[in-house]
Design brief:
Layout (H helix, E strand, L loop, with lengths): L2 H32 L6 H18 L8 H25 L7 H26 L22 E4 L2 E4 H23 L1 H11 L1 H6 L4 H27 L8 H15 L4 H22 L2 H18 L8
Antiparallel strand pairs: 1-2
Length: 306
């Protein structure tokens, strides 16, 4: 271990954490607003990664740079289906999230996630061992170079593109939530759905909008993750994205889009530094949960939670 290794792993960790923060942003939206612990979120992100590869390799040969936006559009339709198939009958007209409603929505989203998992397994046709091919062989080049140098660390340009789009997505969603009437209404439902109904707005439609936006963000961020890793896309990727998303959401503060993104960066930075010191992926991942436990003891609402 040396200073150069710590700097290099820290930079890569920040980039990785930013992508994870983007993946977790959709979860904090539906969890923070509707109080729905969406156990299908990780599967939806993996679905976005799969669709990005399918759009590029097996169907319309769409440029990988465009696939995140296509995944977002598809996610709008998937989100509507997800809401009516799993959530509407449970939380649609519920004025408050009782324990019974919370447990019912928990199991419903869990079942929806398992369905996606099975669908991706059979659609890939590659079983549990062989990995989906991803974007192997594709490179984004500027001036003939596929990487740029940052403090002596070579960073692949496609990763820079993925993190740039992730930041833009977070900024646009944050502006939507704070500057538009629909965003303000979504935030109001999170505080008091009865008051929103008395003000003349339909909480059911707001919950539908929230689910659609959250799902579209999940699919788009999954496509960005595919660009970041380029290969190794398989159904088991959910086992990484789901738990990390929950850690990041709690760390950043439930319901805070910006807080979630910053939480992802902090987790990625901690991961990079720990890996540089220990050279162990298992220890680096475990540290993420240690950080979460310590934070919850000091600040239970998370870094930016209220």
């Amino acid at each position: 271990m040396d200073v150069g290794s710590i700097v290099s792993n820290s930079i890569n960790g920040i980039i990785y954490g930013a992508i994870l923060g983007a993946v977790a942003a959709g979860l904090t939206l539906i969890w923070g607003v509707m109080k729905v612990v969406n156990l299908a979120h990780g599967h939806l992100a993996v679905l976005g990664a799969f669709l990005a590869v399918v759009f590029y390799k097996y169907t319309w040969h769409i440029n990988p740079l465009v696939t995140p936006f296509v995944a977002f559009i598809v996610g709008l339709a998937v989100g509507a289906f997800f809401y009516f198939a799993s959530l509407h009958a449970i939380v649609g007209k519920a004025e408050s999230m009782t324990l019974k409603v919370e447990m019912s929505s928990l199991m419903s989203t869990f079942g929806f996630g398992i369905a996606i998992y099975g669908l991706l397994y059979y659609a890939s046709g590659r079983g549990w061992i062989l990995q989906f091919e991803g974007f192997t062989g594709w490179n984004l080049a500027i001036g003939g170079k596929t990487y740029i140098d940052i403090l002596g660390t070579n960073i692949i340009i496609s990763k820079i593109y993925a993190i740039t789009i992730s930041i833009l997505m977070i900024i646009l969603v944050e502006l939507f939530m704070r500057k538009t009437i629909w965003g303000l209404t979504i935030r109001a439902v999170a505080q008091d759905s009865r008051a929103v109904a008395l003000a003349g707005y339909n909480p059911v439609k707001i919950k539908l909008l929230t689910t659609i936006l959250s799902t579209a963000m999940a699919l788009m961020s999954g496509a960005l993750y595919a660009i970041y890793v380029k290969s190794g896309i398989n159904p088991d990727l959910e086992h990484i994205l789901a738990p990390m998303s929950f850690v990041i959401v709690v760390l950043g503060g439930l319901g805070s889009i910006i807080g979630t993104f910053i939480g992802g960066i902090l987790i990625g930075l901690a991961y990079g530094i720990t890996y540089a010191i220990t050279s162990s992926t298992a220890i680096a991942l475990s540290l993420s949960f240690v950080v979460l436990i310590v934070l919850l003891l000091v600040k239970p609402t998370g870094l930016f939670g209220r």
